[in-house]
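Per-record layout

source: Methanocorpusculum labreanum
name: Methyltransferase-like protein 5
length: 200
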Amino acid sequence: MKLRQLEMCLQKVQGFHSPVAELEQYMTPAPLAARLLHEAALAGDIEGMTVVDLGCGTGMLSIGAALLGASVTGVDIDEAALKIARKNAEKFGVDIEWLRMRIDETAEPLSADTVLMNPPFGAQKEHADRPFIDFALLTAPVCYGIFNKGSIPFLEAYTKNTAVITSKTAAMLNIPKQFAFHTKEHLEIPVEIIRLERIS
């Protein structure tokens, strides 16, 4: 599936009804999700692979990966989000396993070929992304994540003994006004799509 076709398809994924600020529930925009998925697919990390989507929300990355031929498990703590994700998957006609669990130091790692994630940036809770990074690298040898621009020095230091960054792509994350503390109708945040490969 071509990038533009995938993006247009993902535009139909329904977002959160009542997003939770503490969980940093922002739907990954279709253009950004499509770009991450397209790059992962070109690298051979999607089609025919087992994929885990951490913090899957309403299923944007999960559904995209399934459309591209992956066997997918979507993981999230929020049952309300998973309920929407199930409906989205039904609408797209894709079979995805949905798993409710909290990503923290007590979480039992899963097993997959590739992890996809748009983890919390830590705006509400400092270092909220770290459990996601740890869990991802325990779960799969390859991880694609969306991180704030400028996060590479942190990621290199944090994963020094566990993984290496093998690719990075600059992108923009569009966040619509959805919480009381938002002052703008839309906020464009520079981000980077990072591919981490576990050191074996």
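summary: The chain has one domain: 28-198. The CA atoms of residues 45 and 114 lie 6 Å apart.
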